[in-house]
Write a structure and sequence with these properties.
Elements: E1 26-33, E2 38-44, E3 54-58, E4 66-69, E5 73-78, E6 84-94, E7 111-124, E8 126-132, E9 138-144, E10 147-150, E11 154-159, E12 164-169, H1 172-180, H2 184-189, H3 197-207, E13 216-219, E14 226-242, E15 245-249, E16 254-266, E17 275-289, E18 294-310, E19 316-335, E20 345-356, E21 360-368, E22 381-392
Antiparallel strand pairs: 1-2, 1-5, 2-3, 3-4, 5-6, 6-7, 7-8, 7-13, 8-9, 9-10, 11-12, 14-15, 14-16, 14-22, 16-17, 17-18, 18-19, 19-20, 20-21, 21-22
């Protein structure tokens, strides 16, 4: 399950928001339809926020592009390593949301009929499947002896005269105990079992390895990471500031162009938007002050490495921060400043925010161009930049 906490069981690092992206991510796939026929080609990875009532299929790049209804799918298999399996079903699911404002005020279970593409997590004597609604609500399904049912953790409010209490109807413990009672070491865990991704994955793995008659046919492996990449262009306002008086502008400053390339490494459990930033920028620095006779004209090749966290809506916000390493290009002109204000190689820090979509984004960032200058033993000046950059992602 891409971009939801589930992959923290088996993947790597920081996940951010639920897995969502509107950009196409075609992967080799085989679809077995309900009538037994097969389609071989590529599918756009089935992110839940795009809706699971259909998937986009193509025979090859640019050929045979069409939608396949989930209700017609028996099995969707992604054969590349790591392998993933999705099963199309039409059935009922619990109606509740992640947001507390969506919780009912009764312990009565409400179900809605839905067309779902269930992701296989563990297949064996007892199988576990996952589904996520568009608002990010997780749903877990248990299959045993050919019967498929949702594990119930019903969240609701009990409303009194002057307050309301958060309550849960944890029917899932009884459901799991009815299936797993023949494995004492697993059944013992159910007394205090908390329903979450990691616990369920481990529980089903342990049960299907428990003893004679139990066996694991399949378990979910980590998804591969993905990249987005494209050009960066914009302007940066550069100046020299006095230490401990960052807002005291000692020089008039200059607006200068900035261009380069930027990439984002999306980890398996990320949402296809968040991840690690890697950028290479032509970053000139120019500023002048006639009162203190300060003049700087220097060009740098700046490499940025940071972490970015983004939202999930079609137009979303992002926040990011990181460190930079800048290498001097050509022969700079520097006067009116101590020699240790501008180094040939500088280590800096940056942070900012952006607004945009999957392809185009505009960001505003602030940079301290030499991080060492904020230390107590540093000289009395430091270089800094306010930049506005546009990033267009080719893929």
């Amino acid at each position: 399950m891409k971009g939801i906490p589930f992959l923290t069981l088996i993947a790597c690092t920081a996940g951010i928001f639920c897995s969502v992206t509107a950009q196409t991510d075609f992967r080799a796939a085989t679809i077995t339809l309900q009538d037994g026929s097969r389609l071989r080609g590529e599918v756009d990875y089935p992110y839940w926020e795009e809706g699971t009532d259909r998937v986009l299929f193509r025979e090859s790049a640019g050929v045979g592009r069409r939608f396949v209804n989930t209700v017609d799918i028996k099995l969707l298999l992604l054969p590349e390593e790591p392998e993933e399996r999705f099963y199309g079903v039409v059935r009922q699911r619990l109606a509740y949301g992640v947001d507390e404002t969506d919780w009912p005020t009764s312990d009565t279970l409400a179900f809605v009929k839905d067309t779902m593409l269930l992701q296989a997590v563990v297949l064996g004597s007892a199988s576990l499947y996952y589904y996520e609604t568009k608002d990010g609500t997780p749903h877990y399904f248990l299959e045993y002896n050919g019967q498929l049912e949702e594990l119930v953790q019903h969240r609701y409010f009990r409303v009194g005269k002057d307050r309301r209490l958060r309550k849960r109807h944890d029917k899932y413990r009884a459901q799991l105990r009815a299936v797993m009672a023949d494995c004492p070491k697993v059944a013992k865990r159910l007394d205090n079992f908390i329903l979450d991704d990691d616990n369920l994955f481990r529980l089903f793995k342990q049960y299907n390895s428990c003893g004679q008659g139990q066996d694991i046919d399949y378990s979910l492996l980590p998804l591969r990471p993905s990249w987005s990449f494209g050009p960066l262009a914009g302007v940066g306002f550069t100046r020299v500031s006095q230490k401990n008086q960052q807002l005291n502008m000692l020089s008039t400053g200059s607006w200068l162009p900035r261009v380069g390339l930027g990439a984002i490494l999306h980890l398996p459990q990320s949402n296809g938007r968040s991840g690690f930033m890697i950028e290479a920028l032509y970053a000139p620095f120019e500023t002048e002050d006639n009162i203190d006779n300060i003049m700087v004209d220097a060009d740098y090749l700046q490499l940025n490495l940071g972490i970015r966290k983004s939202g999930n809506t079609p137009v979303f916000g992002s926040a990011f921060a990181g460190f930079s390493y800048a290498m001097e290009m050509g022969s700079p002109t520097i006067s009116g400043l101590p020699e240790n204000v501008f180094f040939a190689n500088q280590i800096g820090a940056f942070g900012g925010f952006g607004v945009g979509g999957d392809r185009f984004e505009v960001s505003v960032r602030y940079e301290i161009n030499n991080l060492g200058l904020i230390l107590g033993s540093a000289p009395g000046y430091f270089a800094n930049t306010l930049a506005v950059l546009a990033h267009y992602r080719l893929f």
